[in-house]
Amino acid sequence: NSRYAIGNPTGWGFNTMNDTRGDGVRVDPPDEQFRAQFAWHGYYPSFSGGYGNLGAPLLPPAVPAINVAEGDTVGRLASPQFAGVVTLHADGSAAAEADDPGQPSTTTWLHSDDPITSNNDPFSPVRMQREYDAMSAGHRSPRHAYAVEPTGLPGFLDPTRDPSLGTTGGYSSANGYGPYTLAPGESVRIVMAEGAAGLSREAATVLGRQFKASGADANALLTYEVGGQSLSMTKNEWVFTSRDSLFQTFRRAIANYESDYAIPRPPAPPGSFEVAGGGDRISLAWETLAGEPDPAGWEVYRAQARFDSTYTLIYTAGPGERSYDDTTPVRGIDYYYYLVAVGDGSGNDGGGMTPAGVPLRSSRYFTQTYLPTQLKRQQGQSLEDIRIVPNPFNISSNPSLRFPDQTDKLAFYNIPGFARIDIYTELGQLVDTIIHDNGSGDAFWDHTTSSRQTVVSGLYIAVITVTQDIVDQATGEMLFRNGERTIKKFVIIR
Predict the structure, then answer these.
(1) Which residues fall within 8 angstroms of residue 471, CB to CB, at 6 or more apart?
(2) What is the C-alpha to C-alpha distance for residues 387 and 371, in angstroms, rounded to an integer?
(3) Helix locations, 232-337, DSSP H
(4) Which residues pair with 326 in a beta bridge?
(5) Which residues face 394 on adjacent strands?
(6) pLDDT tens per residue across all 494 residues of the chain
(7) CA 389 centroid distance within chain
(8) How far does the chain reach from its first CA to its final CA, in angstroms?
(9) How wide is the angle at C-alpha 187 spanned by C-alphas 109 and 103, nearest 5°?
(10) Cα gap 289→147, rounded to integer Å
């Protein structure tokens, strides 16, 4: 989203800030003694939004823009992440397999549109020599981030200078190992780890809302709860906590590698995990992986609205349990789940920076669901029962008058189990068509056209047409006949 709202060049790294650790160019803090290069979404001075765009908050000055509707933004931070690469090991030579702390021997930053960054050709001596020269140039001083903001962290938190330094494409990090002289059959081993870390989408939304409410005041203190503790920082300070998270990822990667991955083993994940929406609950069921013992227990986590949002522990199951009924969901909300097996903490000796004695858990990614699950309402009994909620929809209304997940969503309740919903403007232009064929009485619309453009304010008309005969299974009464239709109106205010 940041590239569309703040400017397409941001998607190509025009405003990327690049920094380095372990190059000897600067004295790094004691807890940052690793070999790494990393980057973040820096200042984009040509953006005319009128506010500091570190973290890329999506605010009204940024729109209208592609995929961002005018007036339709809560201020979410679109790019609060840091990403980078850390060196875990590099041979000194083909004969010296011990890690050479002097590698990478080159850490530099290159103009992203420079010919050397594209059209590589191993059969061109001229190109290969140019690339060899770049990759054996040593450690460039100053580091790119300091060439942009010489004061370092004070400047990073209050950026005023252009990271592109007047170029047409900005800068990218590059590093080089060796140079190595290898005879036929010889090799060297280089081990790197890539990492990315940042604020969760929930945190980016909550903090962005507060930043927008402050009038985009760079000095406003924004509050968010972390680990049960309420913390207050400025928007840019919150963005830079992502750097701390990335560094933690680097340290863990190093510790795991140096232990030769002899780290405590969590219990095996479940062998299967099924999630199904029902009329009054969402049912979950699982089985132990074949050949594995029962763990000490299981934990069920849930998120709403988006699969990349924050997950909350909703149930702790005993080792012998194999199912759970979630009876707390709200109709109209998308839910996502994952299940982890929990160990008892025995055998956890603290290897690889693992907190000793702490019960370990299987990876969430074995079971995380990426398709939404919802409660299913029984279909309506007549076309007169159909309701559109909320109506009118007002994006600026009190949150209590919208769905709890605060998405742009309308609900069509009590509809026939098999129907087509055609949505028109008041002038009769077809906006979108919803094919409803799951037998339930609920359908939802996200305010976008069939070409995925967000609709504008106005009066809309929904034509709901039954698409097959539907008979009441209990009484045999014909509830709906194929081709029956009704017309409903609703209003959207942006």
Answers:
(1) 477, 478, 479
(2) 26
(3) 235-258
(4) 282
(5) 493
(6) 677 667 777 878 899 999 999 999 999 999 999 999 999 999 988 776 667 789 988 876 655 555 554 555 678 898 999 999 999 999 999 999 999 999 999 999 999 988 888 888 889 999 999 889 989 999 999 999 999 999 999 999 999 899 999 998 999 999 999 999 999 999 999 999 999 999 988 899 899 999 999 989 999 999 999 988 999 999 999 999 999 999 999 999 999 999 998 888 899 999 999 999 877 789 999 999 999 999 999 999 999 988 887 899 999 999 999 999 999 998 888 999 999 999 998 878 888 888 888 899 999 999 999 999 988 888 888 999 999 999 999 887 777 777 766 567 899 999 998 999 999 999 999 999 999 987 889 899 989 999 888 899 999 999 999 999 998 877 889 999 999 999 999 999 98
(7) 29
(8) 19
(9) 35
(10) 54
- List Cα–Cα distances, 33 to 108, 320, 355, in angstroms: 18, 46, 21
Q: Report the C-alpha gap between 314 and 339 in whole angstroms.
A: 10
Cα-Cα-Cα-Cα torsion 219, 221, 227, 228, nearest 10 degrees, comes to 170
CA distance 371 to 205: 22
Length of the chain: 494
pTM: 0.72
Structure-block tokens of residue 63: 């729109």
Q: Are 434 and 423 in contact (CB under 8 A)?
A: yes
What's the CA gap between 127 and 111, in Å, rounded?
16
Residue with tokens 């560094």: 247
Using the structure block, give the residue that is written with the tokens 């079971």: 367
For residue 129, which phi and psi values (nearest 5 degrees)?
-65, -40
